[in-house]
Amino acid sequence: MTTTLDTFDEQDGSTGSSVSTPERSRVIKHLNKLVRQRNEGDRLPSVRQISKDCRVSSVTAQAVIEDLCKQGIIETRPRRGIFLAGGSSKSRSGQVDILFITSNTHALDSDVTVKETFHPQLLHELVSQCGKDLRSTRVHVVLGSAADSELHDLISRVDFQSCVVIGMQDDHVNQVLRQHEVCFVHLFPSAPVLPEFCVAVNNEKLVRMQLEHLWGLGHEKIGLFARSDPAAFHRDKVERRMCYYRLMAEAGLRVAPHWSPNLSYQPADAVETIKAAMADPSDRPTALIVDDSSLPIIYQTLQALGLAPGRDIALVGTDGLPISASMHPTATSLRIGLSQAAALALDMLDSRGQNPGFRSESRWAPIELITRETSCPPPASDAGTSR
Q1: Residue 276 CB-density burial (10 A; 0-12 exposed, 13-18 middle, 19+ buried)
Q2: Residue 138 resides in a domain
Q3: Between the CA of residue 34 and those of 62, 84, 112, 271, what are the distances in Å?
Q4: Position 354 in a domain
Q5: Do 187 and 289 belong together in one domain?
Q6: What's the maximum distance between 2 C-alpha atoms anywhere in the chain?
Q7: Which helix (H) or strand (E) holds 54?
Q8: Is the Cα dihedral 203, 352, 173, 108 positive or negative?
Q9: Looking at residue 79, what is its pLDDT?
Q10: Burial class (CB in 10 A: 0-12, 13-18, 19+), 327
C-alpha cells in the first residue's frame, strides 16, 4: 500500500493534509488528458490558462503542477513555460498502478496455502514484467465493499495515471476510472460481461482441452468440482460450468447432478460435498476437472475414501499453479500463461496511451496442457458406461 501525496491548501497556500477536492480533481483530470495527447517535450498551457479551463484558482492549478513536476511528468522552464518531460512519453506508461479488488482481507497473506492461489501468482508476474520493462509498480489492495470516497481518493491522486485492474470488477470501478481519466486495462475480469479493454481466458477452449484430454484416455463419466462463492459472481467459473455441460451433451455423454457440485471454501463443508458426490461406486465419475487450489482437499478426501488419484480416478487441474506439480502424485493441469497475459495487458495499456481513440477486442491469454501422473484411463469396469 502507498501513501497519498500532500495536496495544496487553497485557503492559505500551505501544504496541507491529503484531501481530494472537486477543484483539484478537475485540474488533475484536465492535465492527465493533456499529457496523454501530447509528445514528450511538447508545451502545455500556462497556469493562467489551466486555471481558466478548469474554473479553479491559480493557487490550485499551481499546486497540482508542482506535484506533477515532483513526479517527473512535466517540467517548468523559467521564462518559457510548462512542458511535458522527456521521461513521460505518451507511448508507454513508466509507472503502473495495480488495483487489486477483493472481498478477502487475507488475500495476500504470507500463508503458504494462500501463495498457491491465482491472484498472488498473477501479481507476481505483473510486477516481474514491469521490472523487466524498467517500469515502477504500486499495488493497491481495495476491498470490494470500500466506500466510494476511498476509491475516488486513491484514483484521483495526481500520480495515478495508468492502471491494471485485477480481482473483483464491476461497472462502478470502470465509471470511477473513466471519471478521473485514468488509462486502464482489466486482467482476467470476473464481471458478467467482458469490459472493452481486457485480457481474459477463452473458457470454451480451456474446458474443451480438459475434456478432450480425458476423452482421449477413455473417460466418459467426468465430473467438475469447483469452488465458488454464492455471494460473488465470477464469470470464468460460470462460463466453464456452462461449457462443461454443453460439451458433454454435444458428445452424447450423461452428467449426473452430483458429478458437478459447488465446493464451499469452508474445508469441512467441501469434504462432505466430495464424499457425497463419490459415495455410490456404481454412479460416480472416473475423472474430475478441478481448481488447482482445491487439489489438497480433493486428494485428502479421495484417499480417505480409498481412491488413489492417478490410479482409480483421473484429475485435471485448471490454473497450472505450482501446487499442481507439488502434489503426490503430480497433477495434470491446464496452465494459463500469466506472464504472457501480463505482457499483453501492459501492451494494451501502452496502446491506449498512444491513441486515446484506441479500440480493441478482448485478448486471450495462452493456455497449455501439462500432462502429469494423474492422467490415467478409467478402471475397466467403468469404461464406456455413461451414455
Answers
A1: exposed
A2: yes
A3: 16, 9, 45, 56
A4: yes
A5: no
A6: 88
A7: helix 47-54
A8: positive
A9: 67
A10: buried
Are 172 and 224 within one domain? no
Q: Look at residues 287, 223, 227 and name the one whose alpha carbon lies nearest to residue 260.
A: 223
Cα distance between residue 59 and residue 62, in whole Å: 5
Structural domains of the chain, count: 3
The torsion defined by the Cα of 67, 74, 157 and 163, in degrees rounded to 10, comes to: -150
Measured CA to CA, the distance from residue 59 to residue 362 in angstroms comes to: 43
pLDDT digits (tens, 9 = 90+) for 202-256: 999 999 999 999 999 999 999 999 988 777 788 899 999 999 999 999 999 999 9
Which candidate, 227, 209, 221, places its Cα nearest to that of 259? 221
Pairing of strands 314-317, 287-290: parallel
- Asked whether residue 20 carries a pLDDT value surpassing 80, the answer given is no
User: Which contacts qualify for 351-357: CB closer than 8 Å, 24 or more apart?
Assistant: 352/183, 352/185, 352/197, 353/36, 353/90, 353/91, 353/92, 353/93, 353/162, 353/183, 354/90, 354/91, 356/36, 356/37
Task: Evaluate whether residue 90 is within a structural domain.
Answer: no
pLDDT for res 106: 58
The reported pLDDT for the residue numbered 83 is 84
Q: What confidence score (pLDDT) does residue 108 get?
A: 57
For the cut 70, the answer to whether the pLDDT of residue 155 exceeds it is: yes
Rg of the chain over all Cα atoms, to the nearest angstrom: 25
- Across the range 90-94, mean pLDDT stands at 55
Residue 387 covered by a domain: no
